[in-house]
Amino acid sequence: MEAAMRRGERSGALGRSGGYGLVAVLVLVALTSMALSVAAQSWADAARRDKEQQLLRIGLLYVQALERYRRSSPGTDKRLPQELDELLTDQRFVGTVRHLRRLYPDPVGATGQWGLVRGDDGRIRGVYSLSEDQPLIAGAVRRPGLRLEPARRYADWKFVVDTDV
Questions:
Q1: Closest listed residue to residue 125, CA positions, set 74, 51, 59
Q2: Which of 23, 138, 140, 151 is the most buried (most CB within 10 A)?
Q3: 14 has a pLDDT exceeding 60
Q4: Where are the domains of the chain?
Q5: Which of 164, 55, 148 is nearest to 108 (CA)?
Q6: Within 13 A of 29's CA, how many CA atoms are on the CB side?
Q7: CA distance 33 to 40
Q8: Which carries the bigger pLDDT value, residue 19 or residue 111?
Q9: Span 116-134, mean pLDDT?
Q10: pLDDT of residue 140
Q11: How many Å is the Cα radius of gyration of the chain?
C-alpha cells in the first residue's frame, strides 16, 4: 500500500469517487450558464419593448407639440415650424411659449437623431425614427391621437400632424 501511495495512486473510497465531484461541478456550471442566458435574453427583450413604448410616447409628444404650434399661429395662416428648436421657444409671441420642454432623442435609433417629414413648403410635418430594426408590435398601432400602420421597420412609423384638420 505504501508503494501505491508513492506512485500517486489513491486507495479506498477517495480514489473511486474523486471524478464524480468534478462532473457534478461542471454540470452545475452548465445549468447556471443556461439559466443566465435565458434571463439575459428576457431582460434584453424587456428593454427593447420598453424602448419601443418610449418611441410611441415621444412620437406622440412631437405630434401634439407640432399641432399646438400650428394651432397657436397668430392670424389665419396656420403654419408649422421650419426647425424642431422652434417647438422649445416659439419666437412668434412677445412672451415665451413652449410647445415642448426639450427635444427628446429617438429612443430606438443608434444616434438619437430623428428623421424629419417635411411638407411641400419645407416645414416640419412630423418625425420618424432612423432605426432599421423590426418593431415588436406586428400590427397597426391605434392609440388616442396616434394611428400607425403596420411596419417592417421603425423608420416606417411616421409621427405626422394631420394637416387636413
A1: 59
A2: 151
A3: no
A4: 54-160
A5: 55
A6: 6
A7: 10
A8: 111
A9: 96
A10: 93
A11: 30
